[in-house]
Structure formats: C-alpha cells, structure tokens
Amino acid sequence: MPPTWKRTEPAVLRDTEVYAMYPFGKGMARHLPFLLLMIPTALYVLFGFGPSLVTVVFSFTDATGIPGTEWHFIGWENYRTFFTASNADDQMKAIGRSLYFAFAVVLIQNAVALFVAVLLNRKLKGDVFYRATLFLPVVLGVTVSGLIWQLMFNPMGGPVQRILKMFGTSSNFFGSYEVAFDLIIFVQIWMYMSYSMTIFLAGLQSIPRDLYEAGYIDGAKGWTAFRHITYPMIAPAVTVNMLLSIIGALQTFDIIYVLTGGKFETSTLAWNVFAAAFGSTSADYGRASAIGMIQFVFVLIFAVTAMVYFRKREVEL
Amino acid sequence: MLLALVMVFTLAACGGGSGDGGGKNNSGSSSSPSSSSGNGGGGSAGDKPVTLRVLHWINEPVNKFMTDVFIPQFEQKYPNVKVEYTTVPSDDTYDQLMQTRINANDADIMAYRSAFVGAPQEWSPGAADPLWKQWADAGLIADLTNESFLSYYNQTDVENAVMYNGKAYGVNMGKVSFTGLYYNKEIFEKYNLQIPKTWDEFVNLLETLKSNGVTPLGFAGRDVWPFNLAVQGLQATIHDDQLEYIKGLWTGETKFTDPVAIEILEKAQVLMNYAHEGFMGLDYGTLPSVFASGQVAMVADGTWNAPTYASLNPDLKFGYFPIPGSNDPAKNANLAGKYDMTWMVVEKSPNKEWALKFLEEMSIPENYTAFVNAAGFLPNQDVKVESEFINEIMPYLGEFKLAWDQLFINRENVGQYASASSVHAEFLKPAGPIATAQELAALSQKDWDAAAPK
Hints:
The complex is a heterodimer. In chain A, helix 8 (180-205) packs antiparallel against helix 11 (235-251) and helix 13 (269-278) packs antiparallel against helix 14. Chain A is mainly α. Helices cover 69% and strands 0% of the residues of chain A. Helices cover 39% and strands 13% of the residues of chain B. Chain B has helices at 2-16, 60-77, 92-103, 131-137, 155-162, 185-190, 199-211, 225-238, 242-251, 259-273, 287-292, 306-312, 352-363, 365-375, 388-393, 404-407, 437-450; strands at 50-57, 81-88, 109-112, 163-164, 167-168, 171-172, 175-177, 180-184, 215-218, 296-300, 318-322, 336-339, 342-345, 401-402. The radius of gyration of chain B is 24 Å and the shape is globular. Chain B has two domains: 50-176 and 339-393, D-Maltodextrin-Binding Protein, domain 2, CATH 3.40.190; 180-334 and 410-450, Periplasmic binding protein-like II (D-Maltodextrin-Binding Protein, domain 2, 3-Layer(aba) Sandwich). Chain B has 17 helices and 14 strands. In chain B, strand 1, helix 2 (60-77) and strand 2 (81-88) form a beta-alpha-beta unit. In chain B, the strands form four sheets. A five-stranded mixed sheet of chain B has the order 2-1-3-13-6, with helices on both faces. At the A-B interface, helix 2 of A face helix 1, helix 3 and helix 4 of B.
C-alpha cells in the first residue's frame, strides 16, 4: 500500500502563507470583510427584506394608502375575504390565469431560448451582432416594448392586422377577450427570451469540445448529441433559468398594466395586488398585502419544487 | 432579525399615527430648495420663491389653456410663484398619481375627475367610501367653505357638486355632457339625414349609412369607458328614473334582469353591430382622428372633446345629439352628464395659501369665462359661453341630468359582471364572449346578489 501523506501544519508560518490565510491582514483588519458586507446587507434588509416583512404584518391589518388614517389588526379577515367574498370566483380565475401564464412563459421562453442559444453557439459570422440584437428587448423595458406591440397590433391598419386581412380574418388583439391574454404572454416571452438565452449560452460554452468529439466517434450526432451531451451538461443553466422564469412569471403585472390595464380578463394575482393597493377606487394596503402573501405562497411552492427537482437532476449527473 | 423588527415598528408608527411624510419639495423649477417649509404664511412672505404643484389629467384644450394662458398670467401677477403643472393620461394612471402624491404630500392642488358623488346613502348599506370621501374624512383635502371666491359660483352648482357634511371641499369648474354622439354634418347632408328623435329613426339612419358604404359609428372600445358613454346614453333615455332603479337594485325591487335593463343591453349590441371593425382595439387617444378624418359618421364621446375635434380638422363641420334610446321623443330630448373637474387643495400642503390664491385667480369671472370657453364646459357661473358648439346643444341641456355612473353606488367585492359602473355591455358579442343580453343580465344579477350586505 502506498504511504498515506499526513498533513501537518508547520510550526512557523512563512510570510506568503500568512497572507494566504489572512488576506485582509491580522488584527482588527480581519473584521474588514464583515464590516464591508454589512453595507449591502443593511441595504437589502432596509429596502428588500424589511418591506417584505412589513407586507406580512400589513396583511393582518386594515391599513390603507390614505395617510393619517389609523389602522387596526384584523387577523385573518383579509384572507377570509379573498377566499369567500362574492368576487372570490374572479380571484380564483385570476389565480388560474397566473398559473397558465407561468407555465406558458416558462416552457415556451426557455425552449425557444435554448434553441436560439444552440444556434448561436457555433462560430457564426456576426454572432456578436446577433446576440446584441436579440438582447435588445430586455434592454428596452416594459413601457417601450408595450408601445411597440400596441403599434404592431393596432387593429385599425396595423401591420399584423393587414397580414390577417390577407388571410381573410381580423382580430381586436388587445381588446379581445379571446386573444388578449395570449398576446400578453407572447410579448412577455419576446421581452425576456434573450435573458434566458444568454444564460444558456454561457452554459453551452462551458461544455468541453472533446465530449462532442468522443460522442461523434461513437456515432452521436445532431439530436442524439444534444440529448446525451449538451442537455445534461447545461443542467445548472437550466436550473437557474427555470427558477428565474418561474418566479418572474408569477410576479409579472407590469406588462399587463401597459397592454390592457387588467381588462378583457387578463388580470392575474400579481395584477390584483397592484389594483388593490393602487387602483383607481382602492387604496387597501391590507388586502393587497394579503393577496401578495397568497402569491408568495404560490411562488414558494413552485420555486422550491423546481429547485429540488432540478438540483436532483444536476446531482445525478 | 432585530433590525427588521425595528424597521417594522418604525414604519408602523408612520402609518398608524397621524404623521405624514413631511412636505417634499419638487425642486423642478424652484431655485431655493427650502422655500416652502415652515412659513405659516402671511401675505408679506410673498418674497420667498414658491413652487406650486398642480396635478391634472391630459385634456388637450384645457392643458393648453393652463400652460399657455392662465399659468403665465398667474405667474406674472405673483412673480415669486412657479407653477409646476403635471399631466398624465386620464385613466387609472391619473388615479394612481393622485394617490401616490397625496400619500407623499407631494402636491398642492389636484383636479378630481368629477363632483363629489358616490357617497354611501342610507339605502346602500355596506358600500365602500369613494376616495374623495376617504380623503375628506381624513382631513387631507382643504375645507373651502369660507373662501370668498366660492361666491362667484352659482349656489346650486356649489351645493350639488362639492358639498359634503355641510362643507365645500373643492371648486367645481363646470359640467359636461357625454350621453350623445358627435355627428359629421357633411355626411348627414350628403345622405339627407336628420337628427333622429326616436330609436327607430336612429336605426333607420344607421342602416342608410351602412347601405351606402359609410361606417356609421366609432367607439374607443379598448379603454372600455368611452364605449360605456354610449351605453349611459341609452340608460339615460330608456330609464324613467335612474336613481329609483338604482335604489331598487339595492332593496331588491328592481333587478338587472328586468325588461328595461335587457332592452338597454340589446340596444347596446345593436350599436356595436354598426360600429367600425376593430373598435374594441381602438384606444381613446386615437378616436378623435378617426372621426376628424371622416372614417366614421358618428362617435361616442363627451362634450369636453369638442375643442379637440375643432382643432384637429378646422374644416370639419360637426354637431352633437343625444342618443335616442327610447321611442318617446320627450324622453330622448335631453343630454345627461356630470359635473366635471373639481379642484381640490391638499390640506397639509406647505403652499396652501398660494394654492388658494391660485383658485381665487381662476374663479374671477373673466378668467373663469376664458377657462370655460377653452375647455368647452357648461359654466357654473353666470357667464356667457362663446362656443358655437355649446350654444348649439343648449336646447338639449334644458334639464341637466346626472348620468348613470354619477348616480350608481356599487357593492363591495362584487364580481366582474357587475363591478365598477355595473352595466358591462362590452361582454356581449361582438365585443365579448357572451351571446345574449339575458345571459349577461343573469350573470350580473348573480354577482350583485352574491355581494349583498349581510
């Protein structure tokens, strides 16, 4: 049996070893990293975590957006109202739409993003140009994207309407009960597809080429190579993208606000939070917080499930 | 964790107590940052530069009047005051602006979309308080009852529009009507058409236009409320007494499924069938150009937009007539509408004194007349209106009635088929998924009953 090497710490540390173990120096300076980290932590608690905690508290009160009014703790009343009030059906439909939105966006957006990323992964001429152009929608922001698509889908002579007319049909687009929501999903995917694509691209580029060569020798080309080499190797990128898109899609309300204002049966849970707190007839922070908490529960369930499932897949490799 | 708890209690104190955010000064145009805090204000403090923040929605003729005529005039009279006039689209965007600004105490004067209507009555138990009432009760909007400039206005108009609990909480600038249709006079002349006095005449007119290849009606369906103006026109002329019907809904004497309500929905469907293609996707901002370019013969819009039509196409000859919902010419003879914008002063504003001066200046009959002429409102003061358009529709304004959405009080948490202004003809085909008026009425009644106060 070969001898086992035991690791022993030398009696006296050389200079370089000291610097390796204590990069910020010895003495008080050792605490520097923690002090520096306190700044972003404080910012996060102040502007991120803290308000979230306040939302939890508000969901048990009847707080309103009217300054100067007193508010009281009312226990589970807001939650009870959500599930049992006369418009509870509408709320359930909104939840259904949120889930539909999330599933559609997550599946389609990631599939398209992966496809495009695989296309761009080869050495194409002008691939930097393609990536930049494809990334433009992310940069444009919600309002501009909304405006672009409103113009494209203008029912009185807009480009898409003209194409439809050539096929003999027409549509009211964002004013239509049938297609408004699907169009919103389309715009959402258009906006964020390249975000997922960039993450996939990063994952793809980390796959060593010799794996493909080895596979090629064994007869794995095209789709087989994708299934057995590419897809497993980008598992971490898939996990990240899935999580981001699930959480993002369940919380989206801004694109709905810009395109239809929640009309024509396009309201989702996230939209109802916004409408309850800042709507034209309502400044009910208590109720909005309660709906926000319910949304949080959904996001938690889906995100945790997704995370567990995808991490398991990663590990299995 | 401790830090988070501290946060919670700090924010709790801010929300629960009577404190507010403190006067934040929008230093957009003012040179001195601390100009407005702390001066209790006597007239002689007028040397300190002041930024007066005024919020309003987008209504081009009015905005133009404010920025080009009134504000420069006001700033000239009071050189230390700079007026910051903010305008945003008149839908939910404006409501949210009002809410956030009043919350942050970041406005001095705000325009409210109508008079102070909609307060719960004894016959509407459990109804929610409209926002203006919540603000008045919380002491956020100033009580103007004893202001001298209020006496420039007609007493009845002041009583009808801005009084609450015996106090006047705002200054209402005039009335508008919106239950009619703008019509293109040239098209009517071309086909020898008269203004219809009954529903049957109206349908004949629509048929004539359609058979001649002219699109009869235009609606801005995408924003829904402009289409609802036409529905309110039907309601105003078909109901004998809208208020009695509304009270009846609350007590159970009347229902959404009553024949009169079904008639309104069915006639709304007829209107939709004679509208241009894609009307449900047209937004309100584009509607004037559709009418002004002659693409449609008539559009549903309010009298406030007459100056817009006039300026879009000066050659356009147009008029306005009430939608004749019934077959009784007497019932169709009058337009209905509402009291339009009400200026409110934010009570906690540090520039309250200047805000009051602003309103005083606006209320002087000379300035008020100029405003009303620019805006196309029906005046609340005894002044002569120049607008040819308004003078032409005077015969229809004999008995000014309030329209449905000014009278209706809704139940809390009511479902979507009866929410907001309660009659949602846009759910019906061709605009929406429901085929018949009976179906929609049944759904509306179901939602209404489910929301009944316990």
